[in-house]
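Researcher: Next sequence.
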Amino acid sequence: MHAIELDPSDAMLYANRSLCYLQMTEADKALRDANTCIKLRREWLKGYYRKGSALMSLKEYKEACDAFEAGLKLDPGNTELEKVFQEAVEAMKRMTWPEKEKMLQAIQLEKTDTENV
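Model: Next structure:
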């Protein structure tokens, strides 16, 4: 039996499994668990760190920046979050033009979706 089955409301279990998925290069599953962790415990930095890390693995650098920034709003002086936030910013700068175009289209689509709500 899995620990999450015994206590599905324990955010730490999702954060830990998210890390395991990241180490197994299953970033989609890691992201899912990181999001669940955040839903269960919004004030805990670990969820935002895991989410940003999963998004970095998926090369979704803008979204990774957003996740790390959300964590930094909870703890502005957190040097580890500042470091990975800067790494995400640098990764965005190194993106190729087609990757940047794709990211801008996704942002525009997201903006359009929120305006229609």
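Model: The two ends are 41 Å apart (CA to CA). The chain has a mean pLDDT of 91.
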